[in-house]
Design brief:
It is a single chain. The protein contains three helices and two strands; from the N terminus they run H-H-E-E-H. By secondary structure, it is an alpha+beta fold. A hairpin with a 5-residue loop joins strand 1 and strand 2. The longest helix has 35 residues.
């Protein structure tokens, strides 16, 4: 496929952060299978009983629109990954500081 991919969001950001030329180079290598690019994306989906939930869905887009979307949202994605890291760090810090037996941290 000639495209380096990884399933770890942390690693993806680490690879392409601070190097927009490398990100663009990788995106240009994405092959067009029949004209459209297939990828997965979080979207709100209406369930049978009327409620909406976030689900990972398969999306198709033409290559130019896909590259434009990836370029436009990469900064937002990096910020999201940083917030998740900070949240995990904060929870770990709280767990470390709690005295043993003072609370149930299994749900954290």
């Amino acid at each position: 496929m000639n495209v380096t991919t990884c399933t770890s969001p942390d690693k993806f950001v680490e690879i392409y952060q601070g190097n927009p030329e490398y990100l663009q180079e990788m995106l240009q290598k994405v092959p067009e299978n029949g004209g459209d690019i297939k990828f997965q994306q979080w979207k709100k989906v209406k369930l049978a009983y009327g409620k909406e939930r976030l689900r990972v869905v398969e999306v198709q887009n033409e290559k130019g629109a896909f590259i434009e979307m990836m370029t436009a949202t990469f900064g937002e994605f990096m910020s999201h990954i940083e917030r998740v890291k900070q949240q995990y760090s904060a929870v770990k810090n709280i767990k470390d500081k709690l005295l043993h037996g003072h609370t149930d941290t299994n749900g954290l």
